[in-house]
Amino acid sequence: ARDPSHFRLSRHDASGVRIARVVVMKKFLYPSASVDDGETGAPSQTISQQTQAAVPILHDASPPDTRWVDDTTSTKASPDARSAWQPTRDPKAVLTTLGGVKFGGSQGGGDDDGPAIGGGHNNKQTRRGRGATHDLRYDEWVNPLWKRSRSNVLPDPVPPVRPPGSGAPMQGVLVHFPEGLTPHVPQKITMSKILTALTKKQNALIESPTGTGKSLSLLCSALAWQEQERVTTDEANVQIKMRNESSQLQYERECALRRGARNAQHEIKIKSDLPEGKQKPTDDPVGAAAAVALNNELDQTLALKNELEAYGPTVRDALIQASVVNPRTFDVTRDLAVHVIKNENTEAAKPEGVPRIKPEACEVKPEVTAASAKPGRTTNTSEKNLPPIEPPTWEPLQRVPKIYLCSRTHSQLHQLVKELKRTPYRPKYTILGSRKQYCPINKNDEECTELTKNKNTGSGETSCGYYNKKDFVIDELTRAQIWDMEDLDKVTKAHLGCSYYAMRALHKTADLILCPYNYVFDANIRNALEIDLAGNAVVIDEGHNVEDVCRDGASGEVSKKDLDDMNDQLMKMCQFLPDAQGAARFTQPLQKWVTKCLNETKGKGKFGRQKLGAFGGPVTAGAGEMLWKGTECVTAMAQAFAPRTYGGAYGDDTYEAQIEARGLTTRILRDTIKLTAFDGNLMREISQNGNTFGLNAVSGANKIATQFLECLMNPEEYALCVTGDLDSPGGMGPAKLEGDKNPGVALWCLRPSVAFRPVSVAARCVIITSGTLSPMGSLEGELGVSFPIKVEAPHVVPANQIHVEASDALGDFTAKAQDADGCPKALAQLLLRYLSKNIIPGGILVFLPKYSLIRKIVERWREDGTMQTLEKHKPVVWEVPGAATLAPTLETFRNGVAEGKGGIFLAVYRGKVSEGLDFKDDNARAVFCVGIPFPAVGDVKVRLKKEYNGTSHAKQEGMLPGGEWYTHQAFRAYNQALGRCVRHAGDYAAIFLVDGRFARHADAAKNKSMVSKWMRNLVAVFSDARESAGVLREFFDKLTTNPPGGGKMDVDESTPETKD
User: Fold this and answer.
1) What is the structure's pLDDT at 281?
2) Going along 257-323, which residue ranges are E strands?
3) What 3-state DSSP class applies to 848?
4) Would you say residue 981 has pLDDT above 80?
């Protein structure tokens, strides 16, 4: 391998291009083979005996896939060989390592040199021995010539543009807007209130109509405040460091003075004890001086170390980070110049090589008082009178608050990131998501944990190649500074890295954290992702659903099957992990209690769908169910987790026994939460064993125990139900066979304050923004905290660009009317009233209460030919459940609009189209809101919520009565759908309230007062269809002829189209 005669260099290939290529003789490795010279036809030289002795011949091995090829087959030359070979480099160095195998390796070579042939190999230094999952080595690891090049896929960062004098001062903060844009009035109002909330640490409710650019104003104001806060914090930290240094110097000076006085007294005592005229003998003066110096240094170090450790690791780390204290202060075992003192007593001498330190040298001498002096120890009178030295008071450094910017879905977060790219701010940020959202190989939690179980070992290498390359993703995103989800996808694919762990790593240093707001309000998710809200700001965009998210975050369900599996895993874990017994003490009694309740209710009650008239009374358990409400939940949990104590097995069945059972239940729940916490003992033991068995059981037990404890602490806000089918509790679902049911236990939170209040207490402030927050008083009562700042901003679109009409063409569109056979035909006739005369240009959105109604309408239109009639005017698409089909459906609709065909989009209230997207300009020139989306009247959770809001406890907390809460829930979803059109100041559209309850109904005025403030005074009712069509034609003809802003987006517009 080291003989240049065994290879040759070719300076040209078949095309005449001069290149450098190595031809390795096959006989070099396999003596039985030979390679002819491609140019002269002469046989190649054979390997020398000296080389054969140094390199063992692999007679039985099959030839590896060579990176280097014969010059005679130029068409099969390896591209890697062409690009990697450097003719100016010594050829011996290139052939030293071939295919990851080193020839003639040195004896005892480590694994970093690759597996050596003809040399020694130290098995103790293998990669597997260091904790890696395999011993494989790649060519790129051992030969720098073959290393892959990793090029950046994102462009170099461009500094944001901030022209001089471009910022606008607001509330003492200079806010910069994107270049070329000027904030309009609603944006100024929004930014002013956000800055007030952040500065004064107050909660805020900000309602700004959809399309007014609230997302951009939210980002600019919040980041401007954080930028100024960073400047203020840095200046304050400089002063804090100076004060800490001054305190430290003063303390050290006092210690030195006290120590000098003590040493002087000690010297006087020694001289007084010696005979007159004699001095203390010293065989080694230099050693004695060194010992004194060592004693003084250790004395000072130990004194400082003991005093600093009393303040805990937080203060210690802050002082080290601020360079106030040297980290070596805490390591008294560091190397020091030590001399052996020869005059020490031999009986007290330590083994040779170990320095002997007197016990007195390890004490904090200045702090010795008369009370703490040991018996027999001589203490000077002046020392007794000196008070102990107080340790310095360390002032912790301030930190810049982080901003948690939350929205409902990831599609809305994607839009926020696009808005962030437009701003002149470049914060460090991350976008938190689940493994389902980010994992490039679609692994679930348990599979991912199994693959990455070695991530905390010394090598840090795991069985997941994507995890091992996450640092490449982190480095490039950090370098790029600004990126969106499309950029993240490019980087992940280019580097084959894991975006899930990259986002979690960026979370540690991020100033801005974007996440769905259930990550903040769900305590289990918050703990798993290590989200710390203490002193940080929480800003919620599109917060009209915050009530539902908080209730869902504090609620929980677990099926009997999952409960059985959880308990079985924990019982097996008890055999090798004793801490698992604590978790089993929670799951085992819960499993038995659920089974007992299901057996007792089996066959009881009347089966079948309950009548609607029954929903007016108190909510009771359905067939095969048990239901507890309010304080009854405490009794049920005491019976589940402490049945013997509650039942009087250890005494009489008294009130005292019930109180004791409740206390025992509380201890069981708290112990389970502590043991199964993300950073608890049980999780730590499982991780150390390198086994993932039981991880799901432990995390599941923690989640359920947390929810049960919340119920125990706030019983008035909960309902507990053991049901034979979790998919349709209350007996409202379709009939199922016994084997298809999903029995289990459900814990339903009835007030969102249970999840919201802890967030508000921990955070600096909570700011909720949306286009539909009214009535704010009701929302404040539901969330259970005070919102000193409330504002309703106006719309930017003039009234003459909006046509709002209430139509009774479908009558009162109640649930009964939706099931009528004539419903699909009546809706088609309403649309054709305007389509047949080509009155409405562009796209049309039609919102309906439920998916089943959309399916019914589409099927009927296809059967009677109505679909063909409609598609003669505009193509028809419709929304279906699930996110997978939304993107192609949306693309079809928008392509039709872009091509001039227009389109009709049938969508559902509370769906992605109604809340997660916006349709500007021709994408939505008309919106038909059909019916009012009241929550399902038969949903047992809705009925329980209405009943709860009618209790005296709810009234005292300032919540709306159940009927009013029910109505407001419907109109919040309704107003969200209305806001899909009219997205900027130059936009225009027609809005139809298709329900008789808005037209000539007795409650028409009340219902119209519930729609968004910016349009409630514009609602018109026409006498007949002809008048409606005529007014609408005049509206569109006028705006089409003279479009607002000359047909272009207004210069002040700052809200681009939202994309999914």
Assistant:
1) 56
2) none
3) strand
4) yes
Taking the mean position of all CA atoms in its chain, how far away is CA 244? 36
Which has the minimum average pLDDT: 124-128, 264-268, 659-663? Answer: 124-128
Q: What is the DSSP letter of 43?
A: B
CA 596 – CA 592 distance, rounded (Å): 6
- Helix 695-713 to helix 560-573 angle, to the nearest 10 degrees? 120
Exposure pattern of 772-809 as b/e (b: 16+ CB <10 Å)?
bbbebebbbbbbbeebebbbbbebbbeeebbbbbbbbb
> Using CA of residue 160, residue 166, residue 172, residue 175, what is the dihedral sign?
negative
Q: Which residues pair with 346 in a beta bridge?
A: none
Instruction: Give 355-377 pLDDT, tens digit per residue.
Output: 333 333 333 333 333 333 344 44
Answer for the pair 879, 893: CB distance below 8 angstroms, yes or no.
no
636 within 8 A of 715, measured Cβ to Cβ: no
∠ CA 878-879-881, nearest 5°, is 145
How much is the pLDDT for 314? Answer: 67
State residue 69's pLDDT score: 41
What is the sign, positive or negative, of the torsion defined by CA atoms of 782, 785, 790, 794? negative
Quote the tokens at residue 813.
């569109």
Rounded to 10 degrees, the C-alpha dihedral 611/615/620/624 comes to 30
Return mean pLDDT, the chain.
77
Q: What is the band of 319 on the pLDDT scale with cuts at 50, 70, 90?
A: low
Q: Are 962 and 617 in contact (CB under 8 A)?
A: no
Residue in 906, 926, 816 with CA at minimum distance from that of residue 860: 906
How many residues comprise the chain?
1060
Q: Let me know: does 137 contact 100? Beta carbons within 8 Å.
A: yes
Q: What letter would DSSP give residue 374? A: P
pLDDT at 527: 86
The single-letter DSSP state of residue 958 is T
Q: Which letter does DSSP use for residue 501 in this model?
A: H
> Helices 214-273 and 285-309: crossing angle, nearest 10°?
140
> Is the distance from CB of 9 to CB of 87 less than 8 angstroms?
yes
pLDDT in the model for residue 1015: 86
Please, what sign has the CA dihedral across residues 965, 966, 969, 971? negative
Cβ-contact 211, 770 below 8 angstroms:
no
Q: pLDDT (tens digit, 9 = 90+) per residue, 703-732?
A: 999 999 999 999 999 999 998 888 888 766
Name the residue among 483, 502, 500, 469 with its Cα closest to residue 148: 469
Cα–Cα distance measured from residue 382 to residue 261, given in angstroms and rounded to the nearest whole number: 10
Using DSSP's 3-state secondary structure scheme, residue 628 falls into strand
Residue 42, pLDDT > 80, answer no
* DSSP code, position 30: -
What's the rounded Cα separation, in Å, for the pair 836 and 828? 11
- One DSSP character per residue, 521-580 reads H-HHHHHHTT---TT-EEEESSGGGHHHHHHHHH-EEEEHHHHHHHHHHHHHHTTT-TTH
CA 686 from centre of chain = 23
